[in-house]
Specification:
Layout: H1 3-8, H2 13-20, H3 35-56, H4 61-103, H5 107-128, H6 135-188, H7 190-203, H8 209-218, H9 224-257
Helix pairs in contact: 4-5, 4-6, 5-6, 6-7, 6-9, 7-8, 7-9, 8-9
């Protein structure tokens, strides 16, 4: 039986190695003392090497780089399960910090969370080495980042909504005061009092534009601009408040679904 035949009859890892080498094997006896047989063995190795060179060419730097890439990819793949576990733990901590931020927002806490997110992204990029084996983890961290941005936007909208409501309330209070003033003035100078009252009612969101214009003209035109401006200003504030309230509600609803 020849050495090749013996190799073909083997099983397990040895047979797999034999196949991986494309059955290119040489049997050597390191203890051979016969010089002729030693030379024969050496010639057999040289002949095999020469055949490989003619068939596949010399081992170039490109071959080395390809092999190095394969080795690197293998190492990354082996580390993936542990990396995923560590990243998921970090994401859990970030999510908990986001909840705390929502309950009591602060610039310091916001900065810390953003820094943690960026560090995690940098770590993933470094460990992934461009093979995209951690793409799932990238999406997970991106979701945390987006969640953070939504919470910040929600906070901004809540602040704007509060300001809009306060401005509308201030307008209504000012309108009430002017109603009293208009009533008093109406006894002394009826046209002026009518104009003030009209502007006040508009500021309170009660008087139609037609009533406002008629009352303003009755004053001789002196308070037309002020009365109309007051009414339009109030309507603008109410429109802003409604728009902000809608944005706030939609964003809040979207976050609850996550």
């Amino acid at each position: 039986i020849s050495f090749d035949e013996w190799c073909s009859q083997q099983k397990g890892p040895f047979l797999q190695l034999y196949k991986d080498c494309d059955r290119r094997v040489v049997l050597l006896n390191n203890k051979e003392k016969d010089n002729a047989k030693k030379i024969e063995q050496i010639q057999e190795i040289i002949q095999l090497a020469d055949t490989l060179q003619k068939q596949f060419g010399f081992y170039t730097s490109q071959c080395f780089e390809t092999a190095e890439k394969q080795r690197e990819k293998m190492i990354v793949d082996l580390k993936v399960p542990q990396l995923k576990l560590e990243i998921q733990q970090q994401v859990t901590i970030l999510t908990a910090n986001l909840e705390k931020y929502s309950e009591n927002p602060s610039e310091v806490q916001q900065k810390k969370i953003r820094e943690s997110v960026q560090k995690l992204k940098t770590l993933i990029k470094k460990e992934d080495k461009g093979y995209n084996v951690l793409g799932e983890m990238v999406k997970l961290v991106d979701e945390v980042d987006k969640n953070m941005n939504d919470r910040i936007q929600l906070k901004i909208l809540a602040s704007k909504l509060e300001d809009a409501r306060k401005a509308a309330t201030d307008f209504a209070i000012a309108g009430t005061v002017c109603t009293i003033v208009g009533g008093v003035v109406a006894f002394a100078v009826p046209p002026v009092g009518a104009a003030i009252a009209a502007g006040t009612l508009a500021a309170s969101g009660i008087a139609p534009v037609a009533t406002l214009a008629a009352a303003a003209l009755a004053s001789g035109g002196t308070l037309v601009v002020g009365a109309v401006g007051t009414g339009i200003g109030y309507l603008k504030l109410r429109s802003d408040e409604t728009s902000i309230e809608k944005q706030h509600g939609e964003l809040n609803q979207k976050m609850k679904k996550k």
